[in-house]
C-alpha cells in the first residue's frame, strides 16, 4: 500500500534511527543495505535497487510517495521500541 510523507519527515526518521539500523532492516527484509538507504533518499543504484520512491517538488523538501511502506514501518517501529540493533560487521 502506498504511503505519502514529506521528504523532510522521511529524512528526520532516518536521522533518528540508531547506528546499524539500515543493516538491521536490510537483513530482516533480505535486501541490500543500499536499497534501504535509497528508500530514505539515497541514490546508489549501482549496488542498491530502486524501491518505489517518487518525489514531487514542494514545501518541506517535497512530497514522497512510497509504493511500499514496509521499510518505513520497520524504521518507525524501531524508533517506538527504541531498539538498538546489533551492527553487522
- Which secondary-structure class do the elements indicate? alpha+beta
**C-alpha end-to-end distance:** 33 Å
> Tally the helices: what do you get?
4
Q: Quick one: biggest sheet?
A: 3 strands, antiparallel
Q: Can you tell me the overall shape?
A: globular
What does this structure look like?
Strand 2 and strand 3 (63-66) form a beta hairpin. It is globular and about 30 Å long. A three-stranded antiparallel sheet has the order 1-3-2. Helices cover 43% and strands 13% of the residues. The protein has 89 residues and is of the alpha+beta class.
Features of the shown structure:
single chain, 89 residues, alpha+beta, three-stranded antiparallel sheet, 4 helices, 3 strands, 43% helix, globular
Topology, pairings included?
Elements (H helix, E strand, L loop, with lengths): L2 E4 H10 L4 H9 L3 H7 L13 E4 L6 E4 L3 H12 L8
Antiparallel strand pairs: 1-3, 2-3
Helix pairs in contact: 1-4, 2-3
Amino acid at each position: 500500500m502506498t504511503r505519502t510523507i514529506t521528504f523532510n519527515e522521511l529524512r528526520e526518521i532516518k536521522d533518528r534511527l540508531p547506528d546499524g539500523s539500515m543493516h538491521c532492516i536490510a537483513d530482516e527484509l533480505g535486501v541490500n543495505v543500499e536499497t534501504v538507504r535509497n528508500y530514505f533518499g539515497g541514490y546508489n543504484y549501482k549496488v542498491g535497487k530502486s524501491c518505489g520512491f517518487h518525489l514531487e517538488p514542494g514545501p518541506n523538501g517535497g512530497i514522497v510517495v512510497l509504493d511500499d511502506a514496509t521499510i518505513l514501518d520497520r524504521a518507525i517501529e524501531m524508533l517506538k521500541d527504541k531498539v538498538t540493533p546489533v551492527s553487522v560487521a
